[in-house]
Amino acid sequence: MYNPLLRKLSRAIDLTAEDEKLLNEVIGVQRGVEARQDIIQEGDRPEEVHLIVQGFACRYKLLPNGERQIVAILIPGDFCDLHVAILGEMDHGIATLSRCKVVHIPRKTIDELTRNHPRITHALWWATLVDEGILREWITNLGRKPAERHIASLMCELYLRLKSIGLVSDHTFELPMTQQEVADAVGISIVHANRMLAELRERGLVAFQGRRVRITDIDELVAFAGFNQNYLHLTRRNNPENGQRIVHDQGREQGT
Amino acid sequence: MYNPLLRKLSRAIDLTAEDEKLLNEVIGVQRGVEARQDIIQEGDRPEEVHLIVQGFACRYKLLPNGERQIVAILIPGDFCDLHVAILGEMDHGIATLSRCKVVHIPRKTIDELTRNHPRITHALWWATLVDEGILREWITNLGRKPAERHIASLMCELYLRLKSIGLVSDHTFELPMTQQEVADAVGISIVHANRMLAELRERGLVAFQGRRVRITDIDELVAFAGFNQNYLHLTRRNNPENGQRIVHDQGREQGT
DNA sequence: CGAACGATTGAGTAAAGTCAATACCTGTGG
DNA sequence: CCACAGGTATTGACTTTACTCAATCGTTCG
């Protein structure tokens, strides 16, 4: 069975066969959620941990005037609310972008894993720290990049994150976001989003085919975006040589 | 001895006397660092965990063109790099804003604490999750607030965070940031920062006296900023009534 | 076919940036 | 005590980026 969590974690951390077995058992009943539905709302106190197994979702915050800011894009293998019970209330909402499959994991399962399985604990910390790194990169992009380079950076990030879980094939990945949603993620108006996406298309950096994105030359897009992938921490830490440039792995791209 | 870490954590999590004792022992030798010095640079692999005990610091990222984005402001009680060893390389730098006192904690001390002391582990997770919440709020402010309201929000955040560790007295707190540094945090030019700060001053919302900030009426500033403090999670989670509005505690403000 | 939603385009406005000059403030050497 | 240097803050004038309003176009689906 395709286990995006295992795939994500095992790429970064050495796990034993037993760890992998446990991480497979975590994926039990998958619940389907329609596109554009809230999985969790601001103010909720979730009693279970939610894991995205299929589809795209986003974290978002609403402002008093009704505007929305998307603060993270969640892809298969991402937790919605790992350990959030510690905080009590959600300070943001999570909504699906596409139809999704979500696993509900009892909090005690997570507690048990982190109490007795140090490598899994390590891996979950790794995932948390990477998520933090992504947030910092988004801040930098919002604060210091013009919209077209910001969108280009977002495409680079999604390309690499999706690739790391086997969801890029033939330089192409699903991206079920409307232009309004891209605008909400990049902090610009929908009109401006439309024009900047058009610019990327005209420059031949990104091709949008319906709900799919094709990036012919990732290195060119990276250069245009001023993108540095270090914050994704996709390379093993005991291998200091790589990590400076885009990691092109030679294996098959498509997951099963 | 003033222990900002203990003060921060004990406000949010119930700790035993033994936990408090351990958290006091963590504060050993304090090393002084001059203002505007790097504590950690991007690419470093810190072997110890750094904790700010006194002064102000910031996380920042540099762009290819030399621009800088400040992605977090660190105050006493904040960790620079808790658990970052898991990631290997720092994906951002940390620099002092003022003269600071920093404690270097051996990684094994942290490992020992988290292995054997569940409430402390819980408290460190809490701090990590709050830091994440702050990053999401910054994203929202950058993406969706005009500069003057963004700066106002930043002042609200600093006011509450500093107050929670006893560093606000008489509605006033230290803020050793230049306008360039404010601009780098808010993602605007220094000229614009100057004008927006002037606007806040003229509106009577914030008074800047040298390196000190006085906020006469926090509720008014909150209203102007469209600020919602929920992301700081300053109230105990088993007390659902409060948390909706600014928490004015009645105790003394000044720490010792 | 037409409604509904999403994408696109044009035109005018507002927010924020750049460039450049000037003012202020603080510490040092004379 | 004062002049000066260097950093910081302020202001004006102009440009660029992005926003708003408004209309049009395209696609999908009942």
Features:
homodimer; 256 residues; alpha+beta; Jelly Rolls; Arc Repressor Mutant, subunit A; 2 domains; three-stranded antiparallel β-sheet; 10 strands; 18% strand; disordered C terminus; DNA-binding
Structure summary:
The structure is a homodimer of 256-residue chains. With 256 residues, the first copy, chain A, is α+β, with helices and mostly antiparallel strands.
Walk me through the structure.
The structure is a homodimer of 256-residue chains. The first copy, chain A, has 8 helices and 10 strands. Helix content of chain A is 40%, strand content 18%. Chain A has 2 domains: 118 residues, Jelly Rolls (Sandwich); 112 residues, Arc Repressor Mutant, subunit A (Orthogonal Bundle), CATH 1.10.10.10. A 4-stranded antiparallel sheet of chain A has the order 2-6-4-5. In chain A, helix 5 crosses helix 7 and helix 5 packs across helix 8. Chains A and B meet through strand 5 and helix 4 of A and strand 5 and helix 4 of B. Chain A binds a DNA duplex (30 and 30 nucleotides) through helix 7.
CATH superfamily of the largest domain in chain A: Jelly Rolls
Helix share, percent of chain A: 40-55%
Distance between the termini of chain A: 7 Å
Provide the residue-averaged pLDDT of chain A: 93
Return the CATH class of the largest domain in chain A. Mainly Beta
Whole-number total of structural domains of chain A: 2
Name given to the CATH architecture of the largest domain in chain A: Sandwich
What is the ordering of alpha helices and beta strands of chain A? HHEEEEEEEHHHEHHEEH
Rg estimate of chain A, integer Å: 18 Å
Could you give a short account of the major beta sheet of chain A? Answer: 4 strands, antiparallel
Oligomer: homodimer
